[in-house]
Amino acid sequence: MGHLFEAIDFVENPLYEKIISDIAKQRFSITDDFFSLEEVDLLRQSLFERHAEDGFKKAAIGNKLNETIVKSIRGDLIFWMDETKANTEENLFFNKINSLVSYLNKTCFLGILHKEFHYAIYPKGTFYKKHIDTFQNDDRRKLSFVCYLNEDGWLPENGGELVLYLEHEEKIIYPLPGRVVIFESQIIEHEVKPVNSERLSITGWLKTR
Ligand SMILES: O=C(O)CCC(=O)C(=O)O
Ligand SMILES: [Fe+2]
What we know:
Elements: H1 14-26, E1 28-31, H2 37-52, E2 57-58, E3 77-80, H3 88-108, E4 112-122, E5 128-131, E6 141-148, E7 162-165, E8 170-173, E9 180-184, E10 189-192, E11 199-208
Helix pairs in contact: 2-3
This protein binds 2-oxoglutaric acid and fe (ii) ion.
Pfam families: 2OG-FeII_Oxy_3 (PF13640)
Organism: Litoribaculum gwangyangense
Domain Fe2OG dioxygenase: 108-208
């Protein structure tokens, strides 16, 4: 007779454990080198390819039910990624995301069932005013995810800092290549400061139901 409980094929991942404990403690987590500079270069090329296909549009405020372009609030251009039509570079991206999601679901019972990601280009002079990532008519977004695709050597004077408005402090985060910021979508207000030099990223949400 076989064992009642087979050993579960589970290997603890120190990086994911760090992300989980950071979020539990402070509701956000910053990981430098989540993607290597080589991976960032590939993803940046892929962003430019999608842009050349003319796939980017002005970002809107709110979801499909409540769509208005408000330049005074955000000025980025976005392109929604489609995992079913992913190119090689995007597959690399989604493989990492899926590995993180499956770990979160196994260890935190977060029940992440859906995800959505878009590329974002913030042209010089644009910003995204202080906001929260959940919509009034949709609270499925649990974790927000941002990954920066800027060139190596990003300078503070380029602007475009992400500011997280925490209970007791404002956390300023530079959009360094390969850096990933994850935070609780329903709780953390945040802002992208005005950009002085084109700023590139992938932003996404891990969602329930
Ligand atoms: O790019 C960032 O640092 C944050 C972007 C953001 O807040 C959003 O797209 O909702
Ligand atoms: Fe946001």
